[in-house]
Amino acid sequence: MKITSIELRPIYATREMGRTSPSDPEKAVSHHIIVRLHTDAGITGLGEMSDVNFSLTPETVNALHARLEPLLLGRSPFELTAIQVALGGQTWEHQVVGGIDIALHDAIGKALDVPLYQLFGGKYRERIPFAYPLAPCKTEADVEANLARIERLLAQGHSTIRYYFGANLTVDERFLTQLRERWGDDVEINALDASGRFDVETAIDVIRRFTPFNPNLVESPVKGRHHAPIEDFRAVRAAVALPISEHVADAAVAVQLARHEAVDIFNLGVGYAGMTACYKMFGLAEIFGIQTLLGSTVELSIGTAARAHLVAALPNVDFPCYPAGPLVYHERVVKAPVHYEAGHIIVPEGPGLGLELDEERLTAQRLW
């Protein structure tokens, strides 16, 4: 089985939340690239570069296609390690390598007629607890908008959130106070995500201030995020009671944070360098005794399914994970989206990712 052609389809998807704030009536729009790796065996591997942060013009997509072709055409998806090394020898925009890697794994799973989780050791779990992302409140209208979102989520059986905070601490406190007054502990706050907003002293003060709302963890509290000085992480971690989580993009960062006991939890992602690399990072966390969760850049069903298959095979996942895109986006490009039930992602079945593209929807959502 050899790869004969690469197809990159740029599309849009509309989020259910506002473009500038939770209450903004104009909806946020994300751009993605749907990947298809066609082979001479009639098997097509599906992938997704999710919520990309670079401009998807004909020029940029054609240039990306031209860079990928020499690394992929004529090679078998089963040459996975060699292809990954070749891709890793160049610098790419965020999500590019992950999208290609998902498509390679999907092709392999389809060729072997097994679900993708079998490529990582078999299914360890059927369902994956997840946390729904809520954008930060800046105004009273945002407070009401996010409370209404929680009410809708609870009606669907989903009770865990991840809240981005720090844009307006007074409004954040009002939102979280009303959340606890209305629902008590029936709503689980998995994470308060500071997105690297604070210096060390402020981070300590803010975390102590918000500890009474009982989140499971605080994420990215210091400026610089995973590039921040180790001393900053250590100072915050030593001064607060809540566990500290940080996004970890590669092994060098992971080893530095782990060796210096700088964080409690790794937020790991497929989008950084692909599925195999992410799997290895979970293993590294296990070696160092670091707890984990799987992060998200808000994927469509293809990207979400890939992440669900990976987590399904992992024993050391300690907190609700973040892939919630099929609930966030209004549009979808597959015939049957990833299913959610009672606060959990249900791991898809079927060969590879277990998904089938909807060609009409794909055409309707293309950017050009």
Written overview of the protein:
The protein has helices at about 60-70, 80-90, 95-110, 140-155, 170-185, 200-210, 230-240, 250-260, 270-275, 275-290, 300-310, 325-330, 360-365, and strands at about 5-20, 25-40, 45-50, 125-130, 130-135, 160-165, 190-195, 215-220, 245-250, 265-270, 290-295, 340, 345. The protein is of the alpha/beta class. The protein folds into two domains: about 5-115 and about 360-365, Enolase-like, N-terminal domain (Enolase-like, domain 1, 2-Layer Sandwich); about 120-345, TIM Barrel (Alpha-Beta Barrel), CATH 3.20.20. The two termini are about 30 Å apart.
How does the SSE layout of this entry go?
Blueprint lengths: L2 E16 L8 E13 L4 E6 L8 H15 L7 H9 L7 H17 L14 E3 L2 E3 L5 H16 L4 E5 L4 H15 L4 E6 L6 H11 L6 E3 L10 H10 L4 E5 L2 H9 L5 E4 L1 H4 L1 H14 L2 E4 L6 H12 L12 H4 L11 E2 L2 E3 L12 H6 L4
Parallel strand pairs: 5-6, 6-7, 7-8, 8-9, 9-10, 10-11
Antiparallel strand pairs: 1-2, 2-3, 4-13, 12-13
Helix pairs in contact: 2-3, 4-5, 6-7, 8-10
Quick recap:
With 368 residues, the protein is α/β, with parallel strands linked by helices. The chain has helices at residues 58-72, 80-88, 96-112, 140-155, 169-183, 200-210, 230-239, 251-259, 270-273, 275-288, 301-312, 325-328, 359-364; strands at 3-18, 27-39, 44-49, 127-129, 132-134, 160-164, 188-193, 217-219, 244-248, 265-268, 291-294, 340-341, 344-346. It has a 7-stranded parallel sheet with strand order 5-6-7-8-9-10-11. It has a 3-stranded antiparallel sheet with strand order 1-2-3, sandwiched between helices.
